[in-house]
Amino acid sequence: MTTLTSPRGPRDGTEGEGTKAGPPTPGRTLRDRLPARLRRLSLPYLLLLPALLLELLVHLVPMAVGIFMSFKELTQFFVRDWGAAPWTGLDNYATAVDFDAPVGEALLHSFAVTVVFTVLSVGLCWLIGTAAAVFMQENFRGRGLLRAVFLTPYALPVYAAVITWSFMFQRDTGLINHVLHDQLGLTDTRPFWLIGDNSFVALLTVSVWKGWPFAFLIVMAGLQNIPKELYEAAAIDGAGIWQQLRRITLPSLRPVNQVLVLVLFLWTFNDFNTPYVLFGKAAPEAADLISIHIYQSSFVTWNFGAGSAMSVLLLLFLLLVTAGYLLVTSRGRRSADV
Amino acid sequence: MAAPRSFLWTRRIFLTLLTGFVLLPVYVMISSSLKPLEDVSGSFHWLPSGFTVRPYLDIWTTVPLADYFMNSLIVAGAATVCSVVIAVFAAYAVSRYTFRGKRVFTVTVLSTQMFPGILFLLPLFLIYVNLGNATGIALFGSRAGLILTYLTFSLPFSIWMLIGYFDSVPRELDEAALVDGCGPLGALFRVVVPAAIPGIVAVAVYAFMTAWGEVLFASVLTNDTTRTLAVGLQGYATQNDVYWNQVMAASLVVSVPVVAGFLLLQRYLVAGLTAGAVK
């Protein structure tokens, strides 16, 4: 088996030992083996080719184009022929980060809103998802049904679910104000939910409602991997259920949580669908998430150059955060192993 | 071991509240879709004053919902099939072979997941428009353009999940098939794919849901004839009025296929996540 392993293979280091067996070829000369070997070496690349081409076409090339465009003065006049747009160097970036001028100030504000929103949303999603998964770890009557119910927000198409929330948040015809004002009398007037400061609360509510089932799903899957013997041993040692939760369940979930939190963070930070369906093309200031903000800057005011510069800045930020996060968590994991 | 009362009560209260929170919009959707227009134009009421199925008949004529439905079905269906097939090949290569550039590939593919969609939207929009002008290949506004775009959205996640799933299929199985004279593709389709069906189903469900629910690209890259449900549903809001009962009826109609499919296949999805994502 090892005779057929590519000499380059082990250097890659990800898979360790030779990963496949071909038909055994004892006693052949190098010349005989070469074509088969060539074929074998190129096979993985052939298998990857479609995926590679698509990634190239829809992600990597557009990304390069996006970076290129961010150095150009790309306004609506140049949409038909963006190559002809004048080169402006770093002007778009300068405009985006000039926090004293309106464009930069608005971007900074939107960024701050997005950070606060993301932290709150991810935190709540994680908390609710973990609690639900832990509470449903053991079997009880109706558990299967409840699990199906809990996964519904995840399965519902975003626009159908968010449009329903937007109906519930309507000032005059919505359920929220009916309950708060008409039934409970908690508010003197009917507050607006989709404009003004309350819009942040509305957006957060919808985002958590939509996002927590994913955390639930992942944590549930993670819980299945914890060996039952751990709990049994702990129970024999006299640990109560809360202690088991703190000493066994939560530490065992750590690797799962590290991936989960990162994925939730990226999805929430980049979320466009929820604010777009909830508020339309222009979100209220208090809920002006960055992706909507960039969309607004690009497609509504038709300044693609500035929009691209903002996208690139956003990407750099996400790259930095992700790299930092991976660095910290992998170090934590290593020291935990010792 | 019997759980203490404090645990049972916390659990009961928490799960009840959570069920209420989850089902509230579902209740609003269903109940409002059965109300006459007067009922949804005034203050909200938990119980409808009248009961009517009129909204379900009207949704098809207020906007061309059937056309949108068809567009969504074609786009999401095609994107799902292509994305699953391509992901199977790619994941097989990564799971079973050692080759140069493997890490670069997996890291690149995975990291595209973290990029904001808005970053690709502007350039893709310009590329599609300019490509159309230069070569006559109409990607902008066409279903093909949207299919192409969507199929890459689910691809990174699908590849990632399938790698994990394929890794959990014992290597000896396809090695035996190779020894028995199968080619690598034969081993893939006769041994690895059948053993990994739950993972493949999970990936397909995910890909379909992603495409069915996407809003951003659908709103920019489609035109009047290729509009999907995500964009079309906003047509129930006219200048003066929003036909909320029809909006809710239409939302329910477009949700039923995905929710039903998802709930039917959720066991596979959870199994797929267990093998793939949680590693």
UniProtKB/TrEMBL annotation, chain A:
Residue span, ABC transmembrane type-1 domain: 111-325
Transmembrane feature ranges: 43-71, 111-136, 148-168, 200-223, 252-269, 304-328
Membrane-topology annotation of the record: Multi-pass membrane protein
Annotated keywords: Cell membrane, Membrane, Transmembrane, Transmembrane helix, Transport
SUPFAM superfamilies: MetI-like
Biased composition (Basic and acidic residues): 9-18
GO biological process, one term: transmembrane transport
Locations listed in the record: Cell membrane
UniProt xrefs under PANTHER family: ABC TRANSPORTER PERMEASE PROTEIN, INNER MEMBRANE ABC TRANSPORTER PERMEASE PROTEIN YCJO
Family membership: Belongs to the binding-protein-dependent transport system permease family.
Name the record gives this protein: Sugar ABC transporter permease
Species this chain originates from: Streptomyces kanamyceticus
Organism lineage: Bacteria, Bacillati, Actinomycetota, Actinomycetes, Kitasatosporales
TrEMBL record, chain B:
Domain of life of the organism encoding this protein: Bacteria
Keywords: Cell membrane, Membrane, Transmembrane, Transmembrane helix, Transport
A GO cellular component annotation in the UniProt record: plasma membrane
UniProt entry tagged with the keyword Metal-binding: no
UniProt name for this protein: Carbohydrate ABC transporter permease
Compartments, record wording: Cell membrane
Membrane topology qualifier: Multi-pass membrane protein
PROSITE patterns: ABC_TM1
Family assignment from sequence similarity: Belongs to the binding-protein-dependent transport system permease family.
GO annotation, biological process: transmembrane transport
Keyword presence, Ribosomal protein: no
Domain ABC transmembrane type-1: 69-265
Cross-referenced Pfam families: BPD_transp_1
Annotated TM spans: 12-30, 68-92, 104-127, 147-166, 187-209, 243-265
Signal peptide range: none
Main location (coarse class): membrane
